[in-house]
């Protein structure tokens, strides 16, 4: 879906897709529905302004059912962030795998960066949640940081599979990985103020800035 690259106001309207009445469905399907709608509402109204009653009404279930599934509003937010973390990992790994085993390192690098921005475009609400780090419940902040750590670890593992980087010390390569993760996130934030910047342009900004440093680590023929 197309992203809305600006933080919605507290007066934003409720998701139009919310059901008007309760429909029976398996628990796993119901949990996914609750998480999807909760992600939208948290992103639109902010964590503090959102109530469990709001979400229950939009989903079309009782408030006790949401408490039964997630324990608390903080637990529901944590589940939303965990869901986003899993989705981002799957998208990134799929992009790397699609390049093929013999792909040049620059192509692999570019694929991972592009996958991040495509995820942001397709899951704009999840990105708003991640950017609300200072305002969310304290128990959610470690989960938000775990998204960064997950991406760092996955990128590091991918780079370590590249024979050309075999001789690069872990400490140095880890530093480059942290620069990549930070650059991707900051460019994504910048795009919320520059709606005309495409996924391809954002990818080019990060790759053109960081690749020269990574390329310098490769052995010269």
UniProtKB/TrEMBL annotation:
Residues 1-26 are annotated as: Disordered. This is DNA-binding transcriptional regulator, AcrR family. Residues 28-88 form the HTH tetR-type domain. It holds the Pfam family TetR_C_46. The keyword Phosphoprotein does not apply. The lineage of its organism: Bacteria, Bacillati, Actinomycetota, Actinomycetes, Micrococcales. One of its GO terms (biological process) is negative regulation of DNA-templated transcription. One of its GO terms (molecular function) is DNA-binding transcription factor activity. InterPro entries: DesT_TetR_C, DNA-bd_HTH_TetR-type_CS, Homeodomain-like_sf, HTH-type_TetR-like_transc_reg, HTH_TetR, Tet_transcr_reg_TetR-rel_C_sf. It comes from Pedococcus dokdonensis. Keywords: DNA-binding, Transcription, Transcription regulation.
């Amino acid at each position: 879906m197309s992203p809305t690259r600006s933080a919605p106001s507290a007066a934003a309207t409720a998701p139009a897709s919310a059901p008007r009445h309760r429909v029976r469905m398996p628990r796993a399907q119901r949990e996914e529905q609750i998480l999807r709608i909760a992600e939208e509402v948290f992103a639109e109204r902010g964590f503090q302004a959102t109530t469990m009653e709001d979400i229950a009404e939009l989903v079309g279930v009782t408030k006790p059912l949401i408490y039964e599934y997630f324990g608390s509003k903080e637990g529901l937010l944590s589940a939303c962030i965990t869901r986003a973390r899993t989705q981002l990992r799957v998208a990134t790994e799929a992009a790397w795998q699609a390049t093929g085993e013999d792909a040049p390192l620059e192509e692999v690098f570019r694929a991972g960066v592009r996958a991040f921005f495509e995820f942001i475009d397709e899951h704009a609400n999840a990105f708003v949640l991640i950017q609300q780090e200072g305002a969310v419940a304290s128990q959610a902040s470690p989960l938000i940081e775990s998204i960064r750590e997950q991406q760092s670890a996955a990128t590091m593992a991918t780079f370590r599979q590249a024979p050309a980087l075999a001789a690069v010390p872990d400490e140095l390569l880890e530093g480059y990985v942290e620069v990549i993760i930070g650059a991707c996130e900051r460019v994504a934030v910048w795009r919320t103020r520059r709606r005309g910047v495409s996924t391809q342009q954002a990818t080019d900004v990060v790759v053109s800035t960081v690749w020269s440093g990574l390329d310098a680590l490769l052995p010269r023929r």
